[in-house]
Amino acid sequence: MAYLLGVVLFALAILISVSLHEAGHMLTAKAFGMKVTKYFVGFGPTLWSVKRGETEYGIKGIPLGGFCKIVGMTPQDDDVDPADEPRAMWRYPVWKRTIVMSAGSITHFALAVIALWIIAVSAGLPNPKFPSTEAEIRKEPAVIQLSKCVVPENTLRECTTADPASPAAQAQLRDGDRITAINGTPINDYGQLLTTLRTLKPGEPAQIAYVRDGQPGTGSTVLAQTQRPPLDDPKGQVAAVAALGVGLVPSTPTRVTYGPVGAVGATADFTGDMAVNTYEAMKRIPQKVPALWAAITGEERDIDTPISVVGASRLGGEAVENEAWLLFFMLFVSLNFFIGVFNLLPLLPLDGGHIAIAWFERARSWLYARIGRTDPGRVDYLKLMPLTYAVILIGGVFTLLTITADVVNPITLFSR
């Protein structure tokens, strides 16, 4: 029940975001004097509507987005009443049209930034000093967190009754102990702990020296066996190695909470990192298409493959089911930021395509004026329709692919 509630809540959050996106277009258009005739949440048959002034507001039967109708978005619009010609959008200065068309993405960015600021002052944002690379992790002190078991294969999963118990637990070690030696070999950091374990064999006795609350101690155990690749080649051939059944407790906190003022800078820094990560993720989309198809045909789903609104909603459901509300809101932030960036791509029918054409017209008019040639006027959108249809087709196929993968082989963050 909690899972279903999470799915519904996340889907509703997406619908509200998209509705606010369209409201951004509508409000800026009205502010500049453009005529907006319709603002609807959803598509398909109209369930309810009311007319206020010159705009009809309403709700449609298919809750998969929304739209607003601005009169004369292009010079080729043939449904503009002659009385409305002066208020047609295409007649307005390019900077005003740019603001109107970018207002949707700006709304998504605003939602993401506001949510991030609230998270920064309440739950905290990821610590930028937290060790993230393999080299940084290995330099950390060997302060341990006990595992309940040792998973024999090279995978991440929950323990079962068939898995061997953690040798560290058998040695009476506890969470927070700092290992200082194994069989007399000094351990100064987590990297040395891993290296030393690789010199031992599964089933071999081990004497563990540690420090607990400032006091030294020792314990003995028998090392278990697991499968791991070489330390210097994470993608290399896995082999049987000795395992102690511990993980690392980093010396720095994973998250940092800020005051209201400090949260502003932290939010800006995190947003900058999101922009870089979003750009990198979008570059990888074409090469991830084969992985999506492989997931549909039965192979293991790559966690780095794109997801649809369906997949995002399912992750939101998992987050609520596992009471991971912070993850729920971070998913909301990431999705809004991605949608904001995606809508600014210079491709029709996206908002960015309209913006790109408006500035192309402006640049071309400026250039022709400088070289003494007649202004060629507005771009003929009808000539761009084949390209627009191609973008819609590719986008539709990609959306269908991601939705199918999210239904038959979804990404999961928790064991269910």
TrEMBL record:
It is a multi-pass membrane protein. GO terms for biological process: proteolysis. Its cofactor is Zn(2+). CDD domains: S2P-M50_PDZ_RseP-like. Residues 10-364 form the Peptidase M50 domain. It is found in: Membrane. The keyword Chaperone does not apply. The keyword Protease applies. One of its GO terms (molecular function) is metalloendopeptidase activity. Signal peptide: none annotated. PANTHER family: MEMBRANE METALLOPROTEASE ARASP2, CHLOROPLASTIC-RELATED (PTHR42837:SF2), REGULATOR OF SIGMA-E PROTEASE RSEP (PTHR42837). This is RIP metalloprotease RseP. It comes from Micromonospora peucetia.
